[in-house]
Amino acid sequence: MQRMSDAPYIEVRGLSKIFGSDPASVLPMLGQQLTKREVLERTGHAVGLRDINLHIKRGEIFVIMGLSGSGKSTLIRHFNRLIEPSAGDIRVEGRNVMELGEAELREFRRRSMAMVFQHFGLLPHKTVLDNVGFGLKTQGVAVGERNAEAKRWLTDVGLAGYEDQYPAQLSGGQQQRVGLARALCTNADILLMDEAFSALDPLIRSDMQEQLMQLQQRLQKTIVFITHDLDEALRLGDRVAILRDGELVQVGEPQEILLNPADDYVAAFVQNVNRARALTVGHVMKPADSHLSAFTIGEVLAHMQRCKQDFAFVVDDEQFRGALRRETLERAKANAARDQDYVEEFYEDIEALSPDALLEEAIPATLTADYPLPVVDGKGRMRGLLSRSSLARIL
Fold this sequence. Notes:
The chain is α/β, with parallel strands linked by helices and about 400 residues long. Helices cover about 40% and strands about 20% of the residues. Helix 7 (about 145-155) packs across helix 8 and helix 15 packs antiparallel against helix 16 (about 325-335).
């Protein structure tokens, strides 16, 4: 994931939406802890959103998810005011979107936010090239410049050579690539993606997810991504927000959602997730408290005795040097005429794990190891330990 500022880029403050003939009369009921069904039965009004408060950082993929009817699509349509709120506001860099006049709102939609829809939203009578360049056309960009930009983005999404085709001539996955290229072509800082990959078959969907992550590494857009698929949310999201009946239940990084669900609803939501594919070694490793910088057999054996362990890890100048086993050192000491000065020749042939590796990649090595495996980063520094028992507990 890319680095991002911790300062709020988008803020949602006290956002509520009531659907019905007289929303203002129903708003006070939201503070009475009535359920969505109870409000509907008493008033004939539907609660779309209830007092949503959240912030989104610049450059992150922020995923909003929930079951059908949870309010996620209603929420994202407030960002560019396709839906007007009953209460609350949304601010982008401190600017209240709800206070924009008609002309300002049009300009905001053209230049600051772009949207990718579930069912593509392409213009069937226009070519692929014209579809991708449509946003630039509404901005008044000259035809030569917008066509050049459109071609560049088509190349980036793998559709070079399709410029003169029409949407009906493309597969679903190709149409969604056109929709993504169209959104990116406007150079908007914020992308709103409403169930953008839900209409695609699983293989194409996975490919689109991978392409989005690759593009994000380079572009660092602020992406608000709506999905009902938890696996998709955990794969894409820097942070994930879970909605239920228009209420915000939990916001957190994917591993927080999986390991520390806020309530029984979230726990039930995540219980069937393949954690081995969603969590990394770095998410579940334990601190490496037992490493040492001693270099003689006697010193290492003494350390093992104090720690009541049959293994030890040697770290020198913050660099992981190797793993040692008590049995090996005791045999070496018994056979040696004197205490060995160095232990390098007794290092075990052990597989060090990367903190970025998925748990499923670490399972084989962990199952065959007699002791926890060291977690070592790309600079050779020891970051923690992953044991078979901690892996089993997480999974």
